[in-house]
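Ligand: iron/sulfur cluster. Inputs:
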Amino acid sequence: MATFTVGQTLFDKLWQLHEVQILAEGQSLLYVDRIFLHERTGSVALNSLIEGNRGVRRREHTFCTMDHIVDTLPGRGDDTQMPSGRDFIVATRGAAQDTGIQLFDVQDPDQGIVHVISPELGIVLPGMSLVCPDSHTCTLGGLGALAWGVGSTEAEHALATSTLRVNRPQSMRVTFTGALPSHSTAKDLILFAIRELSAAGGAGCAIEFSGSAISDLSVESRLTLCNMSTELSAFTGLIAPDEKVAEYCQGRRFAPEGAAWESAVEHWRRLRTDPSATFDYERNLSIDGLQPQISWGTSPQHCIDWDGVVPRIAGAPDEASASAWQRAQDYMGVSGGSRLSDYPLDAVFIGSCTNSRLSDLRLAADYLRRTGHRVAKGVAALCVPGSGQVKRAAEAEGLDEIFRSAGFEWREPGCSMCFFAGGESFGKGVRVASTTNRNFEGRQGLGVRTHLASPVTVVSSACAGYLVADAPMVETAA
Amino acid sequence: MTPFRHHQGIAAPLLRDNIDTDTIIPSREMRTVSRSGLAAGLFAPWRYTDPDARVPDTDFLLNTPAFSGASILIAGGNFGCGSSREHAVWALMESGFRAVLAPSFATIFQNNALRNGLLPVELPRKRIDELAAWVQIDPQNNRLHIDLETCVLHSDATSAQDTFTVNPSAREMLLQGLDEIGLTEKYFEGIAAFEARDRVSRPWVYLAD
Ligand code: SF4
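Predicted complex:
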């Protein structure tokens, strides 16, 4: 068993566990326990590997899914609405077969969004290192895994060598003080953190999230929280694994059993920051009375309380922010001083690796069941489960029926309209409330206006026809 | 990868903060399973008034004659944030860019750039603004010269030179155009030894082949 010195952070321990060799000051060769690929960027890495006459060094530790380009319409096959999408699917399948890695193909019952299925199948476990050519790989930090997004060339390196050359990031601890109010969720917590710390607030850092509000979160909520670490520009996000996490992992398809399971849990217990450890940066955020958050602009840091006021350009702290705000408000078609409830909504989207797990769907469906509300007239509403497992579990509980009868479309698992790949889109100028993680210009399609929010805010907005949270109104200064 | 020793070229300032990889190369512009064919999609949302019909926005800096042939981008902070797509780097390089100057870079973008021979140069925001102002006076003639061997950026004869830092091993690889996988393969014995030790302490990590 590894020996740790006193005074280490969780990140220090994870780094140490995977360090094969120090290459230079601040750079080490790290062992990569698991590699996950998807058809959007993984196919390039696999092809390039094959072209370079190299193979996958540990194919049993390498997985691939079809999630980004694959259609989410019922009855789907290899054809997609994205022109040339089929090429990606066929090429990925071919490369996966040639290299002998495990593929969750279009019709596989375990297919789904990479960051939803990797914990769900027990492919990634606490303390493991995992890379994927996808920036939201940091999601898995919610289990206490060291997981980060890489480019295709780095993915190729990991495939060929089971390692990566990594510059050691700085460390940051974000401590939430206070308790999360019952009307707010992990999504609100992370949107609030990005709003407070800025979209570059965690630049290059391995961030550990801590505080009793974090230990209180369910494992799925922790995944939601860590998912958006990349929106803080962080190297990754982390939460120390606890008994809840062990319970979550037990019995999953690729999780160990028997004596191996016991030794794993024993190992995980030691993965926490020592009280005497220090971080390069410490940030404290008070979340007492935290209101549901909604984004008004084109950066995830452009967030306000759901009943708050869109900032006036005149109030911008500096010239750069003023011009960024102006541009964002022009794009979004909102003006400073207004409230988000002033603008009619055209569409809502529930899905993505941020909020498409069973607990997210339950939360949204529960609102519909509780209120008996239906989607407002003229609002297009889409619900896309994150994986085949999520979809089956939701259907077994009758959630699909609740969504459908309230006016939602119920889809097959995948990334769907979280991003625009050239196929399906909401349309120019369309205002969307979305449970996704990015509100960049054009992210969901040319001219689409994305408002980020939690599943419960999105579903209540769908029913109202404008942006509104299912939360008590608080007094805000106009 | 393409080696980088020095480069002189026309610099184009796009001084917005948080320019994300979706903007650099939108997902819909990544049409083939390859690293090429991306140049036409570079900055598509800004470059075209109608990206589908490829109607150029003549106001967009890179479409103006003054900046034609630009090979250095001067950008705002947190450049390359968002999606990890390496296509952002490939699209920039295919369009002739060899370096990006910015107050800061998103980590994944920076790593991708270094591995392809696109040099990310971090400079203080004040210098970024000054350099941008200077090139704008006469873009075709006020060129920048970047020397990776000495890690110095020259603007013109009179102005101060800027020194910058690049991670030493990345710099070495850039200078020589080395393939990182080839370098790491030299450590295969060490990696196997690590696995043998690790299997004992973390047996549950190793799945059956
Ligand atoms: S759901 Fe969206 S953010 Fe998540 S992996 Fe898919 S495209 Fe990326």
